[in-house]
What does this fold into?
Amino acid sequence: MSDNDVKTDSKYSVFAVFKTFLFLGLTSFGGPVAHLGYFRKELVEKQQWVSESQYAQLLSICQFIPGPASSQLGFALGLIRAGWSGALAAFVAFTFPSIILLILFAWLLPLLSGDIGVAIIHGLKLVAAVVVADAVWGMFKKLCPDLPRRIITLVVIIILLLLDSVWALWAVIILGGVLGGTFCRQSSTEPLSEIKVTYSQRFGFVLLTVFFVLLLGLIGISHNGGIVQVMQIFYQAGALVFGGGHVVLPLLQESVVTTGLVSNQDFLAGYGASQAIPGPLFAFSAYLGVLMSGGIEQNMILVAFVALTFMFLPGFLLVAAVLPLWQGISNNKTTLNVIAGVNAAVVGLLITVLYDPILITGLTSLFDVLAMVVGILMLNRWQLSPLLVIVWCLLTSAMHLLI
It folds into this structure.
């Protein structure tokens, strides 16, 4: 597909955006890193919403700024495809299935402690293994075609395997950019495909101002609990965390468990459920909002809505602010090299996540390895729906249990 063939007109149907992301929200198992593979396969390879170059640029932007990278990427794709309505449709469709499933899963968790529950959870781990493995191969071929980028990928893998720190994720992205700017040699005669948005750079600066005003304003407001405290907890978490959902969950534990707003047992039950459902891990905020409403007079739906909104809002403000500013800096030689390095680092991150925890916890026997290989063939060779892959993994997990 050439960049000139990519269809990025804002006139495209908002309903089509909603339908596409609803499907992704119902089938995107495996966490935020796996979502990158789902998005690329569906929106770059299959539906051709954006080119490989545009997708790589959006991925770089979302990795560089705070917030839930996969949800920010979905928001940006919806924005480019169908304007602000498309961005909202992408967020709602991708997020709300996980909210419903998360609360239901947590409610049913005590009933899923037997063999059936074990088989379901193990099957979902196989799904994650298949999706991330497929994403690793596809992105490695596209984003690491030469020796410098493959070396960056290898360096990132070694660092992440040696350093057990939530901040290492952000550090390797920066390192990838530095190494890319130093050693990669992208051709400046082949400019990046333009990412078009329907608003000006001036409005981008307005959005950036709103981000900082809310951050500083909420930090400075005193409160006696209630909705304002919910706003503070979740906006600060969404605005200051790098690395996505897996990083923000421990930080939220510090904010809501140590303060007595949510019991540790309830928090861990929801944390476990959030690992097994499709969609963004930041949806965990709505679950916490429901639990926190027990000590607040307002309606629990309102509290859950506020928690969810203020969790995602800072990340969306930042990505929307950066997009109109991006084109002015993206086509110089240094930026091209930095983007190449960042994307090579993302591939290293994918490979590391594939190894630990996905393969380590998901593949417990040769039977699992064979099931994973067939799942990869279903996605890559036979071009079957991810939904069929999910059914395959769940069935093989159940069969293994019965054997």
About this structure: The two ends are 46 Å apart (CA to CA). DSSP finds 16 helices and no strands in the chain. The CA atoms of residues 43 and 230 lie 35 Å apart. The longest helix spans residues 69-108.
